[in-house]
Design a protein that fits this description.
The protein has two helices and five strands, in the order E-E-E-E-E-H-H.
Length: about 110
């Protein structure tokens, strides 16, 4: 279903589809939309895609040379309260882990320095 939004270039109102390319009737700028949001102009989208393709080829070359793939995490999208719950669980899990490591350290220390 078409939605009325403003063009990123000229702020003119225009209808656009939820996915695909839309041309502004005021300035003629072609905009790429995904999930009902403007993403990039067509030229910017093509340049970004070409850059990502080059990076992918470089990564594959490195993977072939070393026999493994490298992964770079650039962002983690996690709701705030889910992150809070995760951190609380990690903090609670640290307590028994610390106790076990302390027992192992004390045992090794006792055996070595007896």
């Amino acid at each position: 279903m078409p939605v009325l939004k403003k063009c990123k270039s000229c702020n003119g109102e225009m209808f656009f589809a939820s996915d695909g390319e839309t041309v502004c009737k005021h300035c003629g700028e072609t905009m790429v939309t995904r999930d009902g949001k403007f993403v990039l102009s067509t030229e910017e989208a093509e340049a970004k895609e070409a850059k990502e393709t080059i990076k992918a080829k470089e990564a594959n070359t490195v993977a072939k040379e070393y026999g493994k793939r490298q992964v770079v995490i650039t962002d983690v999208q996690m709701p705030f309260w889910s992150m809070v719950v995760f951190m609380v669980k990690a903090s609670i899990a640290f307590i028994p882990a610390f106790i076990i490591l302390a027992i192992i350290y004390a045992t090794v220390g006792f055996v070595l320095f007896k």
